[in-house]
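User: Teach me something about this protein's shape.
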Amino acid sequence: MDAELRELYQQVILDHNKSPRNFRKLENANHTAEGYNPLCGDKINLYLIIEDDVVKDVGFQGSGCAISKASASLMSSIVKGMKKQEAEKLFEKFHDLVTGKLTNEEEIEELGKLAVFAGVRDFPARVKCASLAWHTLISALQDGKKVVSTEE
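Assistant: First, the predicted structure itself:
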């Protein structure tokens, strides 16, 4: 990744950290989950409204590092309007991206703005920060009742 692209990616992460999208509690959420990353101290509460197997709305609250909050912000914007199955497949691709399993540049580009997290694979401790919101999403989609932890 060249320096110019890396700078752009850092700007996207900083923007979503400073002004996270969908940072709110959805009082009428019908799917919720809690996530915690004890290594970094990141915490997230995720709220979904799902109707007819479609994610109609997403909100989240919590605290954490810039990567964690930016990941939750981007995730919440992207999965809104998706079918549950599509969101689950996107989780798999995102997880492969941050863990270094997805290396094909074309496939990475297909992830759109999520490609900003490609550099996380070079920092193993940050993989959990980037993936916390996504693991919490999977739990919420499956009506998770327990707290998701990155250490399990």
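Now, about its shape. Strands lie at 31-37, 42-51, 54-63, 148-149. Helices lie at 3-18, 66-79, 84-99, 105-110, 124-141. If you'd like, I can walk through any region in more detail.
User: That's plenty for now, thanks!
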